[in-house]
Amino acid sequence: MVHSEKPVIAVDCDEVLAQFLPALIRYHNAKYSTTLELKDFHSYRFCEVWGGTNEEATEKIHDFFETDHFLRDLAPMPGALEVLESFKEKFTFVVVTSRQHIIEQATRDWLQNYFPNVFSDALFGNHWTKDSPDPNAINATKRTKPEMCQAVNAIAIIDDAPSYAVQCADVVKKVLLYGTYSYNANPEGGLPANVVRTVDWEEFSKTCLPKGLNRHTRRSVSCGLAVIDNST
Predict the structure, then answer these.
(1) Which SUPFAM superfamilies does the annotation name (predicted)?
(2) What is the model's pTM?
(3) What is the Cα–Cα distance from 146 to 154, expressed in whole angstroms?
(4) Average pLDDT, stretch 150-169?
(5) Is the domain covering 8-18+76-207 a CATH 2.40.40.20 domain?
(6) Catalytic residue list
(7) CA angle, 179 then 125 then 154, to 5°
C-alpha cells in the first residue's frame, strides 16, 4: 500500500513510459526476417499481428526479454520524464504494469535509470506468463489493473490499452487513454464517460495541468480528472 498525502496517479509502463513495441519490432525483424512496423500492431495480442498461437507469441516475448533489445535498447517515451517531474510536488506517481515478475528487477532498474526518484513504487500484474499466457485467465500469481489501482488508492491511471482503461474506469475517477496506436484507435464497444484521451506527454502537460490543488487537504484536481473531493 502506498501511503501519500498527495493524490496518487497510476502510470502504465509499456507504450506510456517505455517504447516497448519499437524495441520488440527491431528484435522480431532481426530474428525472423519480418518487416513489421508500429502501425501493424492493431492488437496487443501479438499472435494476431505476426501469426501463430498465443503460447508461441508468449515464448517469443520471453526470449526477447533476454536480449539487448530489451535489456539495453528500451527507450523512454519522449517528454515523459520532464512532465512527470513537473507534477511531482502535487501528485504521487506509482507504476502499475501488467509486466511479469521475472522482469521485475530489470524493470525497476530501467525505471531508476530513466525516471530516477519519480515513482514511489511499482506494482506488477504478472500477465502473459509462460504457464498462463492468456492474460484474462484466473491465476493466483496475477493481479488485475483495477486491483493494483485500488491497492495504491489511485484517483487516476494513465494507460494505453482500451481493455485496461475500461476495467479501471470502475475503480478510479478518471482514466487517461494514452497514445494514438492502431490497437487503441477504435475500441470495440466504446469507452466509459470517465475515460479521456491524451495523445502524448506534451498534450498531457498542456491540457492536464493541475489547478487549485491543496496538497494537504487533497480537495480538487484538474487535468481532465474533474473535481475530486478526497475528504469523503
Answers:
(1) HAD-like (SSF56784)
(2) 0.87
(3) 10
(4) 96
(5) no
(6) 12, 14
(7) 65
